[in-house]
Amino acid sequence: MEPEQPSTDTEHESLHEETHLPPPTLWPIGFAIGIVVILVGLIINPLLISTIGAVIAIVFAVLWARDATAELRGESLVVEPERREMTEAGEGMTAPPADQQGVALVQVPETAVTRSVFLEGATLGLGAAIGGLITLPVAGFMVLPSFVGQEQHKVDLGPIERFPLGKWFIATFIVDPTQGEVSRRTAFIRNNGNTANPENPSEQVPSFTIISNRCAHLGCPVQANGPIGQKYTGVPSFKEHTLTGPAEFKSVTPAGYGCPCHGGQYDPEGNRIAGPPVRALDRYAFEINHGRLILLSTYSVSHVEGTGAQAKIYKYKEVGPGEHVDGPEQVFYPINPPHH
Amino acid sequence: MATTYRRKPTKAEIRRQRMEELVTYPLDWLEERSGLIGGVRYFLFRNVPADINWMQTLGSAALTAFLVQAITGVILAMYYVPSAATDPHTGNPVAWESIVHITDDLTLGWLVRGMHRWGASVFIILMFLHMGRVFLFGAYKYPRELNWIVGVLILVMGMMEGFTGYLLPWDQTAYWATVVGINLNGTAPFLGPWLAQFLRGGQEIGGETLTRFYSLHMLVIPGAIIGLITLHLYLVIRLGVTSPPWSKEAAGMEPEEEEPARLRPGLTRPVPRPSGASAMQAEPGGQE
Fold it and tell me: Most CB within 10 Å of its CB: which of A4, A68, A79, A336?
């Protein structure tokens, strides 16, 4: 355009009084998503995901460019004029004539979303989306590792011949060598001798009673009530050093077990006989592998009838101390966290 | 404030004025740009009822106890190691050894650890006394109910600080107290077992329990307490301080016409003598 040329009124207005803005468009959002996908793809899978991102970015870039240059290319744009609501209170004020304002005044329905409301919503929505994107994985990292991927630790307690028939031992052993001493646990072990395999009655399998010392009240370590050591029991104590770490076995003749914290009392089979515990002591599952006693995970017990190999054990899935496994109170603990 | 002199100021007076400007200039500079000085004044020099009681300082005493905990805690964190691993040389857990190191070896470590250890109880006790004062004064009533609720949350957070901090020495007492504490949480209906497993960081108490409790103890809960204290103080400033329940003024009675202190015998005036002593009395309404 040549500046010397005297301009007409309309040209003058369009040059100086109207701010020239490109028409509104949503394509940049798609373009930005494409860029994000490219960058994520660079980390995860440059060939596949970055290619997808590049396609998205190019498509939206083209659309955006088409929109932005539509005016230059002389395409007529369909842009709705911005409309504002006339207030009832403005009776005294007369609206300027439509031709002076340059925009036609249209009665807007009350439900129409104005620009400021849209921007407010968009800001809040985007903020919430960004906040959520950041918060969710962080919160997941805070909570999930406690529940996912809990490993089962097998503990090798040595050859079963070392356990004399019908004698009790206080066994202490390391459950998780990577955790060290803090994973030291105690169990009361008795060799019950061979018994008929419940799945195959003609076969004889070794039977052990292995009672966890975790009190069923609040988890304190219960102690054996009775003499400990060879001097009093006549059975030698011994130590083992197996692949899973050191283990110690002290002979004992328990009349039962007692908890030092709040006075819970159990009989030698682990049944609660007095005090606050809500069930019998937990027991360890075990397997005999090449003649060695291997401890598996624990399970919970409501009560035990009988003793030794003939005992009838009422088994439940492992639950925390203080949780009822039977009786009306069990409804308070419907779903337990995953256990190995 | 500039003083106007009728005569020419002496050198000493000019020096004094310059010294005052030295102090007021930076304060004015700050005030003009931030309004902070005015804000602090607004916070500290509020009007309070005339008949407030010493019991009403228990809240700021509890706040002071919290600040002591925060400061000593930050310094203890410079020496404490939250590791359940075993020291290969001694066979003791690293966390426990670092506490022994703080207490026995480091200069004044025994004092700062003691302040933190005993200050924890002081904080809780002061919060309870403060709560008792608010209850007995009826200061929890409209419009201050929300501040009571915020205060209860601060109290709960303080208890959680006690619970998480108790594990950090990583000795037998700490371990078994935490076992019992977590299992107590575990007996809560429905979500209890999940809460217990979250607190343990797994099925068993171990190294991850210690690091998790350390993070809760020194970052998460103190942050929450600071936020809650801010809200608590905001509400105190907004709603004002309550009068004691025996306040005649608050009950709508006219305050008693009191003789000004300077007219009362015994404080600034000598006790009047039966006779012949009027000449020794200071002039009533004399110079202040």
Answer: A336
Contact, A24 vs A12, CB < 8 A?
no
**Nearest in space to B284 (alpha carbons), one of B268, B251, A150, A135:** B268
Structure tokens given for B94: 């690293």
The answer to whether the Cβ–Cβ distance between A146 and B197 falls below 8 Å is: yes
- Inter-chain CB proximity B179 and A220 less than 8 Å: yes
Can you name the residues that pair with A251 across neighbouring β-strands? A169
Counting one residue from chain A and one from chain B, the pairs whose CB atoms sit within 8 A come to 79
Contact between A179 and B207 using a beta-carbon 8 Å cutoff: yes
- The rounded distance, in Å, linking the Cα atoms of B287 and B68 is 45
- Least CB–CB distance from B183: residue in A181, A219, A339: A219
Lowest mean pLDDT among A43-57, A84-98, A178-192, A199-213: A84-98
How far away is chain A from the Cα of B238, in angstroms, using its nearest Cα?
A: 29
Closest residue of chain B to A333, computed from CA coordinates:
B190
Residue A18 has pLDDT above 80, yes or no: no
Q: Please, are residues A280 and A272 in contact by the beta-carbon 8 Å criterion? A: yes
Whether this model's pTM surpasses 0.80: no
Of B186, B194, B206, the CB nearest to A182: B206
Q: To probe the interface with B, which of A143, A146, A175, A340 has the most B CB atoms within 10 Å?
A: A146
The closest alpha carbon to B59, from B117, B144, B2, belongs to B144
- Asked if the model's pLDDT at residue A108 lies above 70, the reply is no
| pLDDT exceeds 80 at position A219 | yes
Please tell me the distance in Å from A269's CA to the nearest CA on chain B: 23
- Binned at pLDDT 50, 70 and 90, residue B275 comes out as low
**What's the topology of domain A155-332?**
Rieske Iron-sulfur Protein (2.102.10)
Task: Write the residue in B175, B190, B200 that is nearest to A146 by C-beta.
Answer: B200
Q: A338 to chain B, minimum CA–CA distance in Å?
A: 9
Q: Is residue B12 part of a domain?
A: no
Pick the CATH number of A1-74 from 4.10.110, 1.10.287, 1.20.1250, 2.30.29: 1.10.287
Report the length, in residues, of chain B: 288
Q: Is the pLDDT of residue B248 over 90?
A: no
CA–CA separation, B193 vs A336, rounded Å?
Answer: 6
Q: What is the CATH number of the domain that holds B71?
A: 1.20.810.10
